[in-house]
Structures are given as structure tokens and as C-alpha cells.
Amino acid sequence: MNGARAGEPFQLAGAPALSRSTVARDEVLRDDTERLQREWPTGRLLRIDHHGRARMAGDHGELALTYSGTAEFGPEPVEHAVLLGEQDGTCYWAVRVESPDDDGGDWADLRIAGALLNDTDAGLMTSAVALLNWHDAAGFCAVCGTPTHREKAGWARQCPGCGREEYPRTDPAVICLVHDEEGVNGEHVLLARQPVWPPERYSILAGFVEAGESLEACVVREIAEEVGLTVHGVRYLASQPWPFPRSLMLGFTAVASRHAPLRLADGEIEDARWVHRDEVRAVLREGGRVPGVRVPGMSSIAGKIVAAWAQAG
């Protein structure tokens, strides 16, 4: 159930898959060189390849990350390792590795495995992918172009040329479920697809927040630009990190007239359609797909929002 009573606006049932976390983000620990050196030999290490994948064990019902010991890299923290956090006296780290050959293990990314991981593993892998992606793109100072080096256990980069310190960057984006005006939660949802997506895949609308723009204004603008609709009743639902490569998705819902004409953004939106709640429920019962329509999986906030709306009403 989604937690909404009959006649009330729908809400999400629990946190989105990649918003779950249990490990403490200890900012003080990042600067505590002595403690990091002392606890490094007993730490756990997560390996992430250049496709954002980690090695996992388990089946399709539940997956678990496969960690190795940090001590294999030596007695002290290595420069290319990033600290993810600490839990129950154990520090968790991550490193970038080459894409694996056939090592007998199963490697998967967050899109596939995010919803199948427990809260601890989901939070660790999401942080690792986001942080390593930032390091891949932040090797040079944005002011003077000098090569930078890692500081604060991987949570900052320092420029030796001009002294500038840079921190991990996150790009905010809104994602919004638009429903019609029939009742509190509507009876139809607007689903759209981009031309580059796999056949039959549809989702709700999303776009990046521009400089000087509020989240609510971004919702209104993006929907008008992408499908030509004027929305009202913009309402916040939840947020989820989406490190592909470094986004933070902020989930909303809004209302629009189903009778207004749709004007699709050329090159961005290939198709958009109003879909009845019963059809969405049928899609979800069939694992996210029926002939003609596939909706996002539960690793994404889009899938979480669509499922919550479908259960309402």
C-alpha cells in the first residue's frame, strides 16, 4: 500500500531504492588520518568497474554486494580509494577497477540491482558510483587547469596550482508524474518515451534544473517544453540519487487536462499518451511490461512513483 487513505493525494510507500542507506557519513573521520590508518587493515572494499557495476551474489529475488579486504592493498589507505562511511566499527571503501573478464562472478549496475540490494548495500553502492564518477571527471582544476589530487579520504580534490578545493558535484533534476483532473489522484497518467529508448519503454517526464530556477518552476517549464501541457497542483513526493553520472532526482506530481493537445518536443519526445490506471496496474502485474508499454523498474524513482499512483484511487 502507498500510505494514502481513500480520497487523499497519493504518497510513496517507503524510500526510493537508491535513497536507502545505513552507513554513517562521518565527515570528521575523513580528516582523521591516524584513525583511517588504524582501521584500514580491517576495512571492507567495494570494487566498481567503469560501467558502474559491482560483483554480486544471490538470485533474482535478493542480491548482496561482494566485498574484499582492504589489507590486500597494503597497510595504509591507498590514494585511489574513497571512504564511503563507517558502520559497527568497520570502514567501507571503494575503488575503480577495470571492467572484469570472466572471473566466475556476476557483475550488475544499480539500474538492474538497486531494488534487490538491502539498505546497507544500496547506500554503499550508490555512494561509490557517484563519488567515483565525480573523480573521473574532476582531474583538473576548473580555475587554472592544474591536475588535482584527492583529499579528505576521497571527498575533495585540491589544486596545487591555485589552492582551490573542490567537492563532489550533484546535478539536480526534477521528475514528475502528471495525472488528469478526474478525482484527487486522477484516472489517467501521462507516459512518454524518448526516441533513443528501447522499443515500448515509457516513463514519466524529467528534466534538469536550470541556474536560478526553483524546483517547482522547473516542473512547469519542462512539462510545457516536452509535451506542451500547462500543469498545476505541483506537489513534492521524494528524492533519489541517480549517479548516471551524478544526478539527484527530485520527484513531483502535477495535474493537467487530458483534453489539452499534446505538442511533443522535436527530437526529445517520440510519443506521449494518457494511460488509464487499470492498464498501468496490468503492466505492473506483468513485471513492468505488456505488449506496447514497458514502465521503469523499481530501482528508479520513476518506477516507485508510477507504482504508488497506480495503487491509489
UniProtKB/TrEMBL annotation:
Its EC number is 3.6.1.22. The keyword Magnesium applies. Its cofactor is Mg(2+); Zn(2+). Keywords: Hydrolase, Magnesium, Metal-binding, NAD. It holds the Pfam family NUDIX-like. It catalyses: a 5'-end NAD(+)-phospho-ribonucleoside in mRNA + H2O = a 5'-end phospho-adenosine-phospho-ribonucleoside in mRNA + beta-nicotinamide D-ribonucleotide + 2 H(+). This is NAD(+) diphosphatase. It comes from Longimycelium tulufanense.
